[in-house]
């Protein structure tokens, strides 16, 4: 669809050029069309596949521009978050289901049973609630 719009715009430019009819209105129109096509190209719409629709995609490939990095973990680990029985205190977790570690080595934990996201700063003894926590 973007390619068709681009080709149509290209044809319009050639036609105006052949007729030697470039004026400010034409240029503004062509510029706005080019901006619209560029925005559509840079921000593609989301694709939804309805449940009842027939399959038309056999394979999807995702090419990453950057190789993912994997952290190597030490064999003899230490507890850096929780470890103080189950509970609701800031040094406790109950039902942790997800973890994220940022570039500053802060740990973010989805503490599902407590309905909260807890951030544990590097070397901290207790976490701080950054979202939720309302039972």
From TrEMBL:
<dbReference type="InterPro" id="IPR001258">
    <property type="entry name" value="NHL_repeat"/>
</dbReference>
<dbReference type="InterPro" id="IPR011042">
    <property type="entry name" value="6-blade_b-propeller_TolB-like"/>
</dbReference>
<protein>
    <recommendedName>
        <fullName>NHL repeat containing protein</fullName>
    </recommendedName>
</protein>
<dbReference type="Pfam" id="PF01436">
    <property type="entry name" value="NHL"/>
</dbReference>
<keyword id="KW-0677">Repeat</keyword>
